Amino acid sequence: MKLFAWGLGYVAGRFHELTDNIELSGTSRTIESVTDWRGRGVRAHLFGDPGNQELIDDAARADVWLCSVPPVNGRDPVVDYCIQARLHPAAFTIYLSATSVYGGNDGGFRDEFAPSDGTSPRGLARKTAEGEWSYLCGAAGRRLGVMRLSGIYGPSRNALQRVAAGQAFSAFLPGQVTSRIHVDDIVSGIHQICAGAGVVGVFNMADDYAAPSAVVNDYAAQLLGMPALEKLPPDDPRLGPAVASFMAANRRIYGRRLREDLGWSPQYPSFKEGLEACLDADMVKTPNQ
User: Mutual orientation of helices 183-195 and 10-18 as an angle, nearest 10°?
Assistant: First the structure.
């Protein structure tokens, strides 16, 4: 597979690690990151210059595009770049979106057939970006898969790291839950979608067990042999202003199409299995070890 990643980040890096026979190229926004990726054998390019012929050539040669670049000022910068550079999408594009496109604070399930009725600035920007990708790929007669991802965690990016680093508080609101997904399960989902002949459309990604963030943090502390974190209401000033906004959403994400149409299931069905695997992968130590 020749894959071009718009945004050589966490998901693209893990995909590269776990995938055999892949030729990876892509973009990054800093010279330091480009240099690092090139040192790992990846043809990395600095994003932004529509006259960068090497970037354009690598993107044009790819079988699959994977875009993880978030919207900027309400628009998708990669779509704008492609239009400016007159660059047609690959035969298949996977756009990594977010479940913030869904509204709801009732704790109910949202699958791919639920309305995209989110009203947060991030959710509205993601909906706009999905529409821009749909237009770009549709105009070129190319396939598009939109993966709406729940909260991503995995090796070196998880509650274990935060608790071990000294996080002392957890936001807690009775009845509020959050869906999440291990990065390795995202990778397996990408493989499933790429393998499906003619597969297009929206795919949600979440594990089997939506849970309060405080419960996840407490389990991380338990694995580390540390005490549970103090629980605070979302509007407590010690938590910061972004927490209350995040906690306003209360929904369970269900990936119906991946599971029922493509036979996918998560390797890590809940945060417990996922954090246990992260503990092994990260070799996290408690402060007194």
Answer: 70
Residue-range domains of the chain with CATH: 2-154+181-208+252-267 (3.40.50.720)
Instruction: Round to whole Å and give the CA distance between 140 and 120.
Output: 31
Angle value at C-alpha 249, between 216 and 183, nearest 5 degrees: 50
Whether 184 contacts 18, CB under 8 Å? yes
- pLDDT digit string (tens) for 99-122? 999 998 789 999 999 999 999 999
| Dihedral over Cα of 30, 35, 89, 69: its sign | negative
Listed in sequence order, the residues at least 6 apart from 80 whose beta carbon sits closer than 8 Å to its beta carbon are: none
User: How far apart (Å, rounded) are the C-alpha atoms in residues 175 and 30?
Assistant: 41
Tokens linked to 105: 């604070």
The strand order across the sheet containing 64-67 reads: 43-46, 23-28, 2-6, 64-67, 92-98, 143-149, 201-205
* Confidence (pTM): 0.95
> pLDDT at position 263, please?
95
